[in-house]
Amino acid sequence: MKAYLLAEVKAADAPALATGDELAAAIARHGGRCLADGGRSEVLEGKWQAPERLLIVEFDSLQQAKRFYDSPEYQQARAARGDAAAMNMLVVEGLSL
Question: Are 10 and 52 in contact (CB under 8 A)?
């Protein structure tokens, strides 16, 4: 069953946020496919706040998404990001159709 990783990124220091290439490489190495990365978003209902940047990545399974998250490559990108950005991240399983 597909899984979707959603990450809300709040850049404190955009020029210092140079880990985007490292993150993209880690995602690709673990079979992820980026579906959205920082495009325009708009709140349609409720008390959501439009994120500064939203990343949506599709993985073939929840386990694959968690392997990406636990991977040395992602942990290295996370450490390199440091205080340049705050990130909220979650993963959700897709529908079994």
Answer: yes
